[in-house]
Design brief:
The chain is of the alpha/beta class. It has one domain: Glycoside hydrolase/deacetylase (TIM Barrel, Alpha-Beta Barrel). Helices cover 40% and strands 12% of the residues. It has 8 helices and 9 strands. The strands form 2 sheets. Strands 1, 2, 3, 4, 5 and 9 form a 6-stranded parallel sheet that branches. It has a 3-stranded parallel sheet with strand order 6-7-8, with helices on one face. α1 runs parallel beside α2 and α7 packs across α8. The mean pLDDT is 92.
Length: 258
């Protein structure tokens, strides 16, 4: 068990506005300038971006940070990759298998380019269906198909999984470990101060328009900001459970469009 904090940042797409390449989302599409400022803040405050494969070798100073991207938006290679490389930083890209080569998303060549640039390419499921909604056979297919496809594209082992929508629990954890995944991520906000091998890692969702002070408070897990995020996450767990994932997502989509 490790007791050193490990901030894991969760991004999706990087878009200046709805006209940008990729799939713009009003909440999760972080502006490129915001992302660049956040990377600069990390560097200026002594943080080191690290790959998952290098975590075990990190000193216990609490200054390692894991930068992650979910889904596989084309901005991951067009915007995120150049900004990371300019600063000598790395990230883990959790790509949904069936999204590859579809509109606004990474192409097969893009996925290979991320791996060749020294970035991590990991699994975000094959179809982006919520794993907890799948029966046992479909769960195995979802996890194995994604792993196989990404390994064939990159030539590298895929051993990390970010649950689509952060939805899943003990059954999904056990099955992923059995199938060869080593690093598992949900969407619960937290500093990862007590980490155990094979357990879910918490992540810090970075949303559009977040002030740099709020971002820094979240990374350092200080003040009210991160605790409000955690309370909000748990408050939303009840309607998700009562409505079910599909009905909850339909309701959320309607509310965001208003």
């Amino acid at each position: 068990m490790s007791t050193t904090s490990l901030p894991v940042l969760m991004y999706h797409g990087l878009h200046a506005d709805a006209r940008s390449s990729g799939r713009f989302e009003s909440v999760y599409s972080v502006a490129p300038a915001e992302f660049a400022a956040q990377l600069d803040w990390l560097l200026q405050n002594g943080y080191r971006s690290v790959r998952l494969c290098d975590l075990a070798a990190q000193p216990g100073d609490g200054k390692a940070v894991v930068i992650t991207f979910d889904d596989g938006d084309v901005s991951n290679v067009e915007v995120a990759l150049p900004l990371l490389r300019e600063r000598g930083m790395v990230a883990e890209f959790f790509v949904t298998g069936d999204f590859i080569d579809s509109g606004g998303m990474l192409t097969s060549a893009d996925v290979r380019a991320l791996a060749e640039a020294g970035m991590g390419v990991q699994s975000h499921g094959q179809t982006h269906r919520y794993l907890e909604d799948l029966d046992a056979d479909a769960l195995v297919q979802e996890l194995t198909a994604s792993k196989r496809k990404l390994e064939q594209l990159t030539g590298h082992r895929v051993d990390a999984l970010a649950l689509p929508g952060g939805r899943g629990g003990e059954r999904e954890r056990r099955e992923a470990l059995r199938l060869g995944y080593r690093h598992l991520f949900n969407s619960v906000p937290g500093p990862n101060r007590r980490r155990h091998d094979g357990q879910f890692l918490q992540r810090l969702t970075v949303t559009r328009g977040i002030a740099l002070e709020a971002f820094s408070a979240m990374v350092e897990w200080r003040g009210l900001q991160p605790r409000v995020a955690r309370m909000r996450y748990h408050a939303l767990a009840l309607p998700k459970k009562l409505l079910g994932n599909r009905r909850y997502e339909r309701l959320r989509t309607r509310l965001l469009r208003q």
